[in-house]
Amino acid sequence: MKVSRLAQDITLKELSLGYPGKVLMANLNAVLPAGKISVILGGSGCGKSTLLRHILGLNVPVSGEIFLGETNLTKLKDEDELRLIRTRMGVLFQDGAMLGSLTLGENVALPLQEHTELPDVIIEEVVNMKLRMVGLGEFTHYFPNQLSGGMRKRAGLARAMVMDPTTLLCDEPSSGLDPITAADLDQLILKLKETFNVTTVVVTHDLDSLFNIADHVVVLHQGRCLYQGDLDGLRDSDDEYLIDFLERRPTIIDNSMARSVKFRSRL
Ligand SMILES: Nc1ncnc2c1ncn2[C@@H]1O[C@H](COP(=O)(O)OP(=O)(O)OP(=O)(O)O)[C@@H](O)[C@H]1O
């Protein structure tokens, strides 16, 4: 199977997804455009991270299909084909997912060691290049616990980009970061899109981040796609939920999110 080296659309067709005994989303239709940043918004627990897991092929949909360009990811039966496609997808996990016993350089090298036959000296060169790209060129020999939260996210981005993916999936990149560090990370995500033309999908609750980076927005609510389009359309929407969501009013958002807002307000 040939895997494209160009950025491609991600298309969700009549996609229903969830876990045994629990359907989170039904008949979702959306296109996440090639080479653009799509931001996925939605209340806590609506299934945003689950959607990323489905795009990655880690979960199987209840029904419906996910396409990367022309390739129907949900029809790929061969593990080798899936693995090959996954090498073209970089992922920044919510917690950064660095192995604490390895240095930054060793963490970033892992995908290259697992998926390529490159000699160590070349791997070292690529790793150094990727760490420089995210502003961590001086920190190759540091361990994750010696870095700030923002630096760990940057390192996570270096690892996500180490195989030169055409798709970059980021799960709540700004979670746990102060607004300035989060804004710096937004700039880095924009730079990666512009430099490498990756199709980027960002799951976030962070409205500042949304307005900083989104070319395309998908809002999920009550198991369906409530909005997809650009930022202007989102701002102009007269949908009550969207208006309240954008004004951060906790009154009508999902109960689970309302609980977390209430909890935070007590801290
Ligand atoms: N492996 C699993 N098995 C069963 N249910 C799960 C599993 N993983 C997640 N869930 C449930 O699926 C729902 C959606 O979870 P998910 O993490 O996708 O939501 P989310 O929109 O990303 O939430 P948040 O914004 O809070 O991160 C939640 O109710 C969660 O408890």
Automatic annotation (TrEMBL):
> What are the protein's UniProt keywords?
ATP-binding, Nucleotide-binding, Transport
Q: In its keyword annotation, does this UniProt entry include S-adenosyl-L-methionine?
A: no
Q: Which GO terms describe its molecular function?
A: ATP binding; ATP hydrolysis activity
What is the protein name stated in its UniProt record?
Answer: Phospholipid/cholesterol/gamma-HCH transport system ATP-binding protein
Q: PANTHER family, per this entry?
A: PROTEIN TRIGALACTOSYLDIACYLGLYCEROL 3, CHLOROPLASTIC (PTHR43023)
What is the originating organism of this protein?
A: Maridesulfovibrio ferrireducens
SUPFAM superfamilies hit by this protein: P-loop containing nucleoside triphosphate hydrolases
Question: What InterPro entries does the record point to?
Answer: AAA+_ATPase, ABC_transporter-like_ATP-bd, ABC_transporter-like_CS, P-loop_NTPase
> Would the keyword S-adenosyl-L-methionine turn up in this protein's UniProt record?
no
The residues covered by the ABC transporter domain are 10-247
